[in-house]
Design brief:
The complex is a heterodimer of chains A (about 260) and B (about 170). Chain A is mainly alpha-helical. In chain A, about 65% of the residues lie in helices and about 0% in strands. Chains A and B meet through helix 2 and helix 5 of A and loops of B.
């Protein structure tokens, strides 16, 4: 691909920031399970998955830094609460295990659909990264599909908690595919090979049958997400932001 | 006649083969297959530059910076070029199939089951994660997958029902 024009560059930066923030914020939320997951194996698994996500975020922030000339760490840790662009799905605290599993299930499938499409991106560095990340995400999908079934079929309490969490997160999960200002530009340049709405339709085609197979209620509303799906921030996220910026914020110009 | 001096290329490979993986020191970076290529080219300062392309096993592998530093030090000590640059690349994905036969044996003899071969069949979700692996201690296949996630991103945990040992396997990826 030849040199990107200013409009395309801005649109690509918006996409990279959205994806990086999704992975970064979810990685931080779920790393909170380290030491307190229901079983020891899950301590290890959730920690490993979170480390994958933060690693993916780092690679995406570095792509963005290469584009904008900024510093990747500064992008990751140097923004105020309302500067983050993760989907509303990542605005919530980890809550209980069923809630965290519900979120991971909804997100992993959304991420898989997004990466499959981006593997054919005309922006080669992003396509290369998507190809590599997909191989790792395979393990996440297997793991959280299994956990969904385990909780859904495990007993009345776990089934009820999971059903409630899916219902509570459903609308915010759509926001992974919230429209972006530069979307038309990205699609025209084949940087994003398909529209976000086409990706959302594919995601629904995957998650709904899995929910039905586990006898979980499928929330009725699948309204198209609105543009504020990546800009609204919550007190819960503000708290997490305070946690993950604590060290970098203590010495603003330190080198690491 | 004297024997020809070894080429610069073989000197670089030999130097890289001396660097152990920081997380599994039994295997070298060369046998792990993380060196994609290296090349000599004119550097910006007028001298010659040696660039090494390093492929992370996992995108978030925290050992990458250590590897990068060790490669740089080792190759600078060789004095074959005026500058040495180590470039992390995703231009082609590292896969566990890149581990050499010697690397697989080094893993096995230090208690890690080598990853099963994936071949060219990977199609996203179709990567099959086998519930069994060959026990590196007693070679039994009577094993079960305990956890597809382990102490580092690239490792999974199994249990052998015959020698009753838990063991780790390098994940196919």
């Amino acid at each position: 691909m030849s040199e990107l024009d200013a409009e395309t560059r801005a649109a690509l930066a918006e996409l990279l920031l959205a994806m990086a923030d999704d992975e970064f914020v979810l990685g931080f939320w779920d790393s909170e399970w380290t030491g307190i997951a229901p079983i020891l194996e899950e301590d290890v698994a959730m920690s490993s998955v979170s480390q994958d996500e933060i690693g993916h975020a780092k690679a995406l922030y570095e792509l963005l830094a290469g584009l904008s000339g900024e510093d990747a760490d500064r992008i990751a840790f140097g923004r105020p609460v309302d500067g983050y662009r993760h989907a509303a799905l990542m605005n919530h605290a980890r809550t209980d295990w069923a809630f965290s599993i519900a979120r991971r299930f909804l997100y992993e499938h959304a991420d898989a659909v997004r990466l499959e499409s981006l593997a054919a991106s005309a922006y080669q560095p992003l396509a290369d990264l998507a190809v590599k990340m997909r191989r790792e995400e395979t393990y996440h999908l297997l793991h959280f599909d299994l956990w969904l079934r385990r909780l859904a079929e495990g007993g009345d309490d776990s089934h009820a908690r999971l059903a409630e969490a899916i219902g509570a997160l459903w609308s915010d999960a759509q926001a992974v595919f919230a429209p972006m200002a530069g979307e038309a530009c990205l699609v025209a340049a084949r940087i994003l090979p398909e529209s976000l709405e086409a990706l959302r339709a594919r995601w629904l085609e995957r998650v709904i049958p899995l929910l039905e197979a586990s006898h979980l209620p499928v929330p009725a509303a699948t309204d198209r997400p609105t543009a504020d799906g990546r800009t609204q921030r919550t007190d819960e996220f503000a708290w997490l932001h305070g946690e993950f910026t604590m060290v970098s914020g203590s010495e603003a110009d330190a080198t690491w | 006649m004297v024997a020809a001096a070894p080429s610069r290329e073989s000197a670089v490979w030999a130097a890289l083969a001396e660097i152990a993986d920081p997380e599994i020191p039994a295997i070298s970076l060369v046998d792990l297959g993380v060196i994609r290529s290296f090349f000599f080219e004119p550097g910006e300062s007028g001298g010659e530059r040696l660039t090494v392309e390093l492929m992370p096993t996992f995108v978030g592998c925290p050992a990458i910076d250590v590897m990068r530093q060790q490669i740089g030090e080792q190759l600078r000590d060789l004095g074959l070029a005026d500058e040495v640059v180590v470039q992390v690349t995703f231009a082609e994905p590292w896969t566990s199939d890149r581990i050499t036969p010697a690397g697989r044996e080094a893993l096995r003899s230090s208690g890690f089951a080598p990853p099963m071969t994936i071949g060219s069949t990977f199609g996203g979700d179709s990567l099959t994660v086998l519930p069994i692996a060959t026990c590196p201690y007693c070679a039994s296949r009577n094993t079960t997958l305990e956890n597809p996630f382990g102490p580092t991103l690239c490792r999974a945990i199994y249990h052998c029902a015959d020698c009753r040992q838990p063991f780790e396997a390098f994940k196919p990826v």
